[in-house]
Amino acid sequence: MRRSRRPSGLLGAGAVLLAVVAFGPPPDGAPAGAGVAPEPDAPAPLPRPAGWPAPRYDVSATPPTQAGVALGRALFYDPRLSRDGTISCASCHLQATGFTHADHALSHGIEGRVGRRSTLALVNLAWNPVLHWDGGVHHLDVQPLTPLTHPAEMDHSPAAVVADLNRSKPCRARFARAFRGDSVPTGQRVLLALAQFTGQFVSYRSRYDKHVRHEPGGELTEQELTGLALFRRHCAAPHRATRTLDPRLRAPFPLTANDQRDLIAFLLTLTDDEFLTDPQFGYPVEEGGG
Amino acid sequence: MTPITRRSLLLLLLLGLALAPLARWAAARPPARPGGGRVALRTVQVRPWFGTHPLRLEAPAGRTAAGEAVTISTLRFYFTGLTLQHADGRASTDPTGYHLLDADDPASWAVAVPLASEAPVVAVSLVRGTDSAANAAGALGGPLDPALGMYWAWQSGYVNVKLEGTSPVRPVAARRGFSFHVGGYRAPAATRRVVRVPLAAPDAAPEGAPTAALTLLADVARWLDAAPLAATPDVLIPGPAAAVQADRAAAIFRHPLATDQLAADAP
User: What number is the ipTM of this complex?
Assistant: First the structure.
């Protein structure tokens, strides 16, 4: 599930130093997008926590900027991305629950249509080799196309979305800020901006992460450690592999009531209150509807 | 200093002043081509075609070899690397990357190729479709923008060729329609094809019009002759069926024959 198993020794310290030198704020410092009216071109690098491997998502061609992240955030919360203007990405990906749809085994799209998949959490996306339950999407940039076009989700077309956004003057201004003065919304830019925003959803402050890094606050109880062992034995492989998954790994394992309690206790150590309440990921109130 | 020396110095200075802008201009110029001289462009026009006529969208296009009446509504495909093979063995290649030809947009039919030789053209080659690098990259721009309707969600990547239309031989339930969306970049069902079209006769640009357009036809009848509509299911995903259609969609390119009505205008 997490890829933070590497001990954060000298290597980790080096990574932090590099991040400080290259980007300014360290991973644990001020979050990107915080503060008022940042420079549009100011970089908004993907958080790169100490000890984590290099992200799979390559941003070297289009490095995220504050304005790009802000545009992605506006789009993420914009219901114009659905055919009837009722559903945004955030309708099913709620920050308070780790960008998944709590209490919904299956999410509902426009007109109350019920889909066939459970909404996945959006976290640490830049490290995912593939996306979706079945690994059906191979690149973070193009992931939004699937919910956007699915009849039971947003049921829209990228061309119509782009045409819609083109008609909005505030929206074009936002694109101009994000793309060096070029105000024309295109499919590519919509997708890049969304990836710049969702790429920022990095959870590295949880108790489990601190545990792996041997940091204060990372102590796990006996029950949580038992749950972690269960997770490693039964779930870790399926959660790491996706497309090339050995079918035997998908077989359910016998779970006693005790196991269940232990496992849930462990899973709760993965949640991260700071991440779930971080205002930079919330509805862009101060920026208006755009 | 004698007046003569002074005069020659002055001359030298003037000459230097006169040459300075020339030197700057020379430095700013794009690098000269191996043959020297400026680069001439030759326009290649790829015309959507059906049998002997220009393809008219949303109108009866004609009949296939199997006698099936056909109306085409969409013909779009990606191509890149358009290359003119010259009689002297040289080759002129379009360096501008991907093009999306849309039968509905005549501006998308023409490509200007910088000439590496003035020798007659004996063949034209191109790569029809996108390569796996384009498919594995994230959101791309220009002709590869995912909003242009030529990109599948999931791992399928780009639709390399889209051919849609109707025929009375198709089922009523499908509103008589057919759709061939040919894509897929993974072996063994990759759908990108390298196409080489030998010209019927070497194409020497006419006297006085060295850059006159060279016409190539994208003859949909050739595709449908090989794929009788009564017996060819729609193709909407990558796979073996798409790979078969990819071969047929590569066979549409040809050089005009005497029987082709080039003067007839497309709508």
Answer: 0.71
